[in-house]
């Protein structure tokens, strides 16, 4: 079972519990409810969600799916906005790191053949560039994994 299905099932139980609270209040305060409806509602109020018939569960599941859809749609939009902001900031940091690494490497290039310090500068610059590149890739895949884990991308 997918986690979204598990969540919908939990929401359906909550929907049933909320309906049972509401129905209890209605039965206690509203006159004129038919005896047939009172009997049916009292039975449903006393019945835990897990014991309901498939037909009775279907009502709660449909309401739970609507609730899930609203939340899922809302959080997909929030994630898209978040990723845009993080993406722009990440791109600026990534470009700055890459440029810094490139400058360090270029400073070291003319000195590579002459001195050990030149080689060290070139090597450090290349390490900074490699770090920036690997960091960008890892950030992307970690964010993608987190998105799928939290929002169950379909």
Give an overview in words.
The protein has helices at 3-29, 35-46, 54-112, 116-151. The chain is mostly helical. The protein has one domain. Helix 3 (54-112) packs antiparallel against helix 4 (116-151).
* C-alpha Rg (nearest Å): 30 Å
Portion of residues in helices? over 70%
Q: Mean of the pLDDT scores? A: 79
SSE-based structural type? mainly alpha
Report low-confidence residues grouped into runs of 5 or more: none
The figure for the number of domains is: 1
- Gap between N and C termini, in Å? 14 Å
General form: rod-shaped
Summarize the main sheet.
none
- Topology as a string of helices (H) and strands (E): HHHH
According to DSSP, the number of beta strands is: 0
The proportion of residues in beta strands is under 5%
Number of helices: 4
Task: Quickly describe the structure.
The protein contains four helices and no strands. By secondary structure, the protein is an all-alpha fold.
Topology:
Elements: H1 3-29, H2 35-46, H3 54-112, H4 116-151
Helix pairs in contact: 1-2, 1-3, 3-4
Essential attributes:
single chain; rod-shaped
């Amino acid at each position: 079972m997918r986690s979204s299905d598990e969540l919908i099932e939990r929401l359906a139980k909550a929907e049933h519990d909320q309906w049972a609270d509401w129905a209890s209040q209605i039965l206690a305060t509203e006159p004129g409810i038919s005896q047939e409806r009172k009997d049916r509602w009292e039975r449903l109020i006393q019945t835990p969600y897990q014991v309901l018939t498939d037909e009775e569960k279907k009502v709660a599941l449909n309401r739970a799916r609507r609730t899930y859809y609203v939340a899922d749609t809302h959080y997909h939009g929030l994630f898209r906005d978040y990723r845009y902001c993080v993406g722009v900031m990440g791109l600026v940091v990534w470009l700055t790191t890459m440029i810094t690494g490139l400058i360090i490497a270029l400073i070291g290039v003319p000195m590579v053949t002459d001195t050990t310090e030149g080689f060290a500068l070139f090597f450090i610059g290349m390490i900074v560039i490699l770090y920036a590149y690997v960091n960008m890739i890892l950030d992307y895949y970690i964010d993608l994994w987190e998105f799928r884990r939290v929002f169950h991308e379909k």
